Amino acid sequence: MDQSWLHVSTWTPSAPSVLDVHPDVFHDEGKLLPVLRIEWKVATDASIQYLRGVELAVLQVNNNQQICAQFDFQNNLPLQVRPDGGRWNFTFNRFEVEPGQMYQVTVHHLPKLGTSGDHNCKSTSYTVPDCRNPVMRTTMPCMQTGSLWEPSIDGKSLDDSSLLVSFNPGMESARYRIHVTSFPDEEKQCIETTHDIYEVIIFPLTFLLTQTKTEKNSYLPFCNCCSSRCVAHIYSS
What average pLDDT does the chain have? Predict the structure, then answer.
């Protein structure tokens, strides 16, 4: 914690003038992790001479967990703007996040402003894309929920009024839940049935369901790594 949170400073810098948050990925020991890319710019006023550091805070909204990072500048910024005339800007992309979750991002310039009701910080809310996003689906958390699984789902009505459903199981041993919704000609109300099966081999699996005219099949794997959070796949005939 910066000392300005405990002791009021005589002079303090202005809040960041611009704050942008984007999704990003970071390679860590061979794993691709989802992170936030936080970019902010310093206000172009005289208070820049009192900028001594910055505190970043990221709050995960659904569980109220917060992580922070503080950076202390070794030297003051020499000019109000960069030598090329642009505003001073900074970037940080090491906060690991969960796909699909909302975060509150705050950038606080240090020393902290001690005036009650006033702040020299800037905040914004950002929701990380879920595992359907092309970039996120290749990260480790999404891969653990089956984001790269291509089941090749197929359904076929047989002569004995049953339904042949087939799909390619994932490489990991898992329990699969197959939910079938069908609309027979003689029924006005749809018929639904659910089957739980276990599969440990890697060749395509087939089984029979005694229903006809299938409208929609959904497949939900239950792997050890993701339990009920695994990605469901839907097939409509």
Answer: 80
pLDDT of residue 140 exceeding 60, the answer is yes
Distance set, CA 124 to CA 53, 59, 152 (Å) = 20, 11, 40
Superfamily of domain 149-236: Interleukin-17 receptor A/B, fibronectin-III-like domain 2 (2.60.40.2150)
Chain segment 116-138, per-residue pLDDT in tens:
777 899 999 999 999 989 999 99
Going from N- to C-terminal start, the domains of the chain cover: 3-143, 149-236
- pTM equals 0.75
3-143 maps to which CATH number? 2.60.40.2160
Closest CA to 201 of 165, 167, 169: 169
- Amino acid found at 181: T
